[in-house]
Design a protein that fits this description.
This protein is an alpha+beta fold and 646 residues long. 17% of the residues lie in helices and 33% in strands. It has a nine-stranded mixed β-sheet, with helices on both faces. Strands 2-3-4-5 form a four-stranded antiparallel β-sheet, with no helix packed on it. The protein starts with 33 loop residues before the first strand and ends with a helix.
Length: 646
């Protein structure tokens, strides 16, 4: 599917007074955009020692050119990831965008390839604008103010579809435009809600398929008539069904992924007249994450998520027979797109391979590597593969995760461990390249565990809904406790030296763990984290507020507000005793900086320790290399002080 992930914004908040220490001459220079509040200086020798682990790259497949056998990849040679062309397997990467901010998505117009459209925000504010790219320069197509999300190209390459909050700053209205002339932009549907987007144009361009994301288990599809603007549901919008991708085959048949009649997303066709979804191919026991249809309709490539591992499969739509691509090792696959001549492009990563671009021949299933990203000169074959682990939680529910253990020969005896909790919460920890964290594993002998608590995706819609609302929220926190108890009995781990980290929703879990598991943890590193659900819901950007209320609860309902306050870590901040390192993006539209400011202040007011690192040019997580490097080095200082000591 020819899609970009382009999203949206927040003005820079007022920055409170911070206590930055003057760095000694032999310290690592702090990037100008970072505020290091309460952090000690970072020794210069630490930067020298870790440098090989900081200098890895990745190359994500972005898309094929429609008439030439070349691809665009997103990779970083400077401070931010930019777009590059690769004209042959293992050929040079020629940079084509040169922005101060990351540019990681985009696509040429189908058929002719005369226009390339991409997107970019400023400082991580997620107020993405759409641009055309020519001669290394970006020309803005949108208004420069609203949040704009990519939708799709028409098959003939004439039109693009996108969503925009231009009308009122909140609702994702739907638009089409000829990107060669921005004045042609017109709204085709005025909608309510921040979860709307356009999936695909019909082959005749008379209509588009749009989706309305209301929750991870409730995503409705609609057909929109481009001439009159009429909108009709595809399927029964009153049912709790989630549709994933939607794409038209050349014969006009609509293919989708849907969990209708199943606990998992299945690939199938949807009859617009009868409203019936028909699963196609073998019955999968896992989610179909994504798919793409060959331009001639001869096959469909799709990816299954099998306990976190990816499998690429090819379906013959005439016979429903499937072939499995077995040439890739255990890892994860993304960025799927089939070229005009049938070659499959994708991104692949594993514990022993940074993300790189590959292609697959659909006839022979031969795999061709197009990029080989640098890994700081390190031998990636020495990186440890994760151990998949399942346990029974407090109520008997099976939960799982991935444990990376240091080399026992190099690091004998019981080792310290950091549990790292994913965000979302509708997300999943999956095995992949560990990047800078390989330094913790390979040089410091620190084990790292990535849990998938209830509410994670990848294990079916029943599992993903087990933490919904304020009254079930802390069941996922209890899952963390069950993991900590289980890992404490592991003969290879030192239960007296456990730490915990997490970002976004995982950051809330980090704060909650600092409260509820303080006897089991030495320290916590909480990143872009929710500290108070009520203030979070009141201050997150308006385009996403109702979507988050579905997951967490509605702070406007008195009984839910009471429970949301009760389970908020800020309410129980007096119980936080161990050192905490908080990381914040000042432009974060999802979890505002105020969430960090209030808990850091409360911790310090009671005399406890909290470091605070603020990126004034960052959003929901750091994206600029100099900032990411400094954040990692600061975390090493934090863990050495608070976790690795006896």
């Amino acid at each position: 599917m020819r899609r970009l992930a382009i999203i949206a914004a927040l003005t820079l908040p007022a920055i409170p007074a911070f206590a930055e220490e003057a760095a000694p001459a032999n310290a690592v220079p702090k990037p100008a955009a970072l505020i290091a509040d309460g952090l000690p200086a970072i020794p210069a020798e630490m930067a020298a020692e870790t440098r090989p682990y900081m200098e890895f790259r990745t190359a994500g497949f972005v898309g094929w050119h429609p008439t030439e056998r070349k691809m665009v990849v997103a990779t970083r040679f400077g401070n931010t990831a930019q777009l590059h062309q690769v004209t042959m397997p293992m050929g040079a990467r020629k940079q084509v965008t040169f922005e101060a901010e990351p540019v990681t998505g985009g696509g040429w117009s189908p058929k002719k390839g005369d226009v390339f459209v991409t997107g970019k925000d400023i400082g991580g504010n997620e107020f993405y604008q759409l641009y055309t790219l020519k001669d290394g320069k970006l020309a803005m197509l949108t208004d420069g103010k609203s949040r704009n999300g990519w939708g799709a190209w028409s098959d003939d390459g004439e039109l693009i579809a996108y969503s925009s909050t231009k009308r009122n700053g909140t609702d994702n209205d739907l638009y089409v435009m000829n990107p060669r002339d921005p004045s042609t932009a017109r709204m085709v549907a005025e909608v309510k809600g921040g979860g709307w987007g356009i999936n695909a144009f019909a082959p005749d361009k008379a209509s588009v398929v749009a989706s309305n994301y209301q929750s991870v288990t409730n995503v409705d599809l609609y057909r929109i008539d481009l001439a009159g603007g009429g909108m009709s549901p595809i399927g029964d919008a009153t049912k709790d069904i989630a549709y994933g991708g939607a794409e038209f085959a050349p014969d006009g048949k609509l293919w989708v992924t849907s969990d209708e009649g199943s606990d998992f997303q299945r690939l199938g066709t949807h009859d617009p007249k009868s409203g019936v979804f028909t699963p196609r191919g073998p019955k999968e026991k896992w989610d179909v994450d994504s798919f793409d249809i060959a331009p001639d309709g001869s096959f469909i490539a799709y990816i299954t998520n099998e306990a976190g591992m990816s499998k690429l499969k090819l379906l013959d739509p005439k016979t429903d027979k499937v072939r499995v691509v077995d040439g890739l090792p255990a890892g994860t696959i993304g960025g799927l797109e089939i070229s005009e001549w049938g070659e499959i492009g994708l991104t692949f990563t594993s514990a022993r391979s940074a993300a790189d671009a590959y292609s697959v021949d659909p006839k022979t299933l031969k795999i061709t590597r197009w990029t080989e990203s640098e890994t700081g000169g390190l031998d990636v074959s020495k990186n440890v593969e994760p151990q998949f682990m399942t346990i029974k939680s407090f109520d008997g529910l099976e939960v799982s995760g991935f444990l990376y253990r240091p080399d026992a020969a190099k690091f004998p005896g019981k080792r310290p461990m950091i549990m790292n909790v994913h965000g979302g919460p509708e997300a999943q920890s999956r095995p992949g390249f560990m990047g800078r964290n390989n330094y913790l594993l390979n040089e410091l002998g620190v084990a790292i565990f990535f849990p998938n608590v209830r509410g994670s995706t990848g294990y079916g819609k029943t599992f993903v809904g087990l933490d919904n609302g304020p009254f079930k929220r802390e069941d996922s926190v209890k899952d963390m406790g069950a993991f900590l108890d289980h890992l404490a009995k592991d003969p290879g781990l030192d239960a007296s030296r456990f730490g915990l980290a997490g970002g976004s929703y995982g950051g809330y879990m980090c704060y909650a763990a600092a409260v509820q598991f303080k006897a089991k943890l030495r320290a916590t590193n909480c990143i872009v984290a929710i500290s108070n659900f009520v203030t979070f819901l009141e201050n997150t950007q308006s385009y996403r507020r109702d979507l988050r209320r579905v997951e967490y609860g509605d702070e406007r309902v008195p009984e839910q507000r009471k429970k949301l306050l009760e389970i908020s870590p800020l309410t129980r901040v007096a119980e936080i005793e161990k050192p905490m390192f908080v990381v914040t993006g000042a432009n974060d539209p999802r979890v505002p900086q105020s969430e960090a400011d209030q808990i850091v202040k409360a911790i310090r007011d009671k005399g406890a320790t909290s470091w605070h690192l603020v990126g004034t040019n960052e959003g929901h997580g750091f994206a600029k290399k100099e900032n990411i490097d400094y954040q990692f080095l600061a975390s090493l200082v934090f863990w050495k002080q608070n976790l690795l000591g006896e």
